[in-house]
Amino acid sequence: MATVTQSNIGPLHEKISVTIATTDYLPGFQKALKNYSKNANLPGFRKGMVPAGLVKKMYGENIFSDEILRTAGTEVEKYLSEAKLKFFGRPLPLDNGTGYRFDMNAPQDYTFDFEIGLQPEFSIPVIEGGAAIDAWKVIVTPEMIDEEVEKVRYRAGKMSDIDTIAHEDDVINVTFLPNGAAADVEGKKTNSLLVKYFSPDAQAKLMGRAVNDTIEIVLGSAFDEKLLPAILKDLGLEPTDESAKELYYNMTIDKIGHVEKAILDAGLFDDIYKGAGITSEEDFRERLKTEIQTYWDQQGRNKLHNDMFEILVHETPIEIPTAFMKRWLAEGGETPKSAEQVEKEWSGFDHSMRWEIICSKIANENGISVSREEIEQGIRMSVKQYFAQMGMMADIDTEAEWMQGIVDKQLKDRKATEEIYNQVMTEKLFSFLESKFAVNMHEVPLDEFLKAPSKHHHHH
Fold first, then answer.
1. I need a surface site. Which of 17, 349, 382, 440 has the fewest CB within 10 A?
2. Whose CA is closest to 355, among 290, 393, 310, 415?
3. Maximum CA pair distance of the chain?
4. Contact status, residue 256 vs residue 164, Cβ threshold 8 Å
5. Are 149 and 264 in contact (CB under 8 A)?
6. Span 285-296, average pLDDT
7. Which string of DSSP letters, residue by residue, matches 392-442?
8. Residue 14 phi/psi, 5° resolution?
9. Which residues of 360-382 are buried (b: 16+ CB within 10 A; e: fewer)?
């Protein structure tokens, strides 16, 4: 009968030793030989008629080794389950220095060692004490609505390609490249901008420019002050970083277009919001205001959740068996990683690992779970959102009969189901966290929101 022992080899680092006797694996070996004989296809023999002795001679050693290793693995899994150990990853084989020589003609007892990293017991002080956190709500101004109205008129207008920039309302497609960088660097970004979004000095330099012209710009002086934070964000830069404004970029003009803006009338309103019954500019602007507010409210919530993530990950004292986890990161996946790769990926992996066990603790202690019905509803809303983004059937009935067929199909797709499960669970976890933090809401103009600092901590 197999025996399993556990011993400590470091902080949160355990060795699991399993010894299997011949009586543990020989019956499985004999059964595997018989099954192989029944299904073997060898030239000169009918299927299922290959002599067992021949199968044993040709394949016995491999079957013997596989059965020993399978038995050892099964015993380890059984022990971990019965002991109810909370551990990271999966057990990794540990070299005990003895080496293994499997001989089916001389069966014997074998001992295998594995190592595991245990999850620590910990508390979450920041939510137990109701830590304060700032949240941000954007004030939608008439100017923002004016800008959105103009964007709508541009999008619905008639575009014609032109050779040179001649007006502040011209649209240019541009490629940004950090000054001195190679053409294929990661910092290369594309964007579509109205000429009037640039500063007066930059606009003057753009007038008369043609496709393929390249202009050197300094970010801080090239764009309208209100737009600059958004441009910095699009370029992957931190809007609050003053030094980013001093960066030089080469901006290449890829395309120039002139738009004859659409007229604001009932026809345009109905094209955009079909069946909504919007006939006046006042109602149209009110609808836009609602959508703008909804968008920035979600952006504010996203920022709040990101800050909660940073605080929880960095201010929850969790001891991690780092040495074991780095080995697991190197060897535990489908493809081995080098020491350099492990170090490069460690920070992100460490964050994800800490977040995962924090979420697990919160969910388990507060009865937060996701039901099948919630997964189904998540699928329905995902389908509705897809159609809305495609500009089709924005007001579809999520309970329609045809929708059930899509839901049933998605439920059979494990990857899709897990994705919806994670979305629903994440939403429920953050809703719970919002009730535990002391949220200080700040109503601010858009430019202040874009400059609001993000949480970046070091582990306590």
1. 440
2. 310
3. 91
4. yes
5. yes
6. 95
7. S-TT--TT-HHHHHHHHHHHT-HHHHHHHHHHHHHHHHHHHHHHHSEEEEE
8. -120, 150
9. ebbbeeeeeebeeebbbbbbbeb
How far is it, in rounded angstroms, from Cα 137 to Cα 446?
9
Identify the band that residue 89 occupies on the pLDDT scale cut at 50, 70 and 90: confident
Answer for the pair 257, 167: CB distance below 8 angstroms, yes or no. no
Amino acid (one-letter) located at 153: R
- 393: alpha, beta or left? (left if phi > 0; alpha if psi -120 to 50): left
Tell me if 290 sits within 8 A of 332, measured CB to CB: no
Helix and strand numbers, DSSP H then E, in the chain: 15, 11
Torsion of CA 454, 455, 457, 460, to 10 degrees: 180
Band the pLDDT of 276: cuts 50, 70, 90. confident
3-state class (DSSP) for residue 108: coil
pLDDT over 50 (residue 460): no
How many Å apart are CA 341 and CA 348, to the nearest integer?
12
Structure confidence at residue 184 (pLDDT): 65
Task: Judge whether residue 393 has pLDDT over 70.
Answer: no
pLDDT of residue 391: 56
Buried residues in 422-459 as b, exposed as e (16+ CB within 10 A): eebbeebbbeebeebbeeeeeebebbebbebeebeeee
pLDDT in tens, 166-202: 999 899 999 999 887 766 666 689 999 999 889 999 9
The CATH number of domain 158-260, selected from 3.10.50.30, 3.30.43.10, 3.40.109.10, 3.30.870.10: 3.10.50.30
Reduced to 3 states (helix: H, G, I; strand: E, B; else coil), residue 16 is: strand
pTM of the model: 0.73
CATH 3.30.70.1050 residue ranges for the chain: 3-118
pLDDT of residue 96: 64
Plot region of 93 (φ>0 → left; ψ -120 to 50 → alpha; else → beta):
beta
Angle at 144 between CA 268 and CA 204, to 5 degrees: 95
Given a contact cutoff of 8 angstroms between Cβ atoms, the answer to whether 310 and 458 are in contact is no
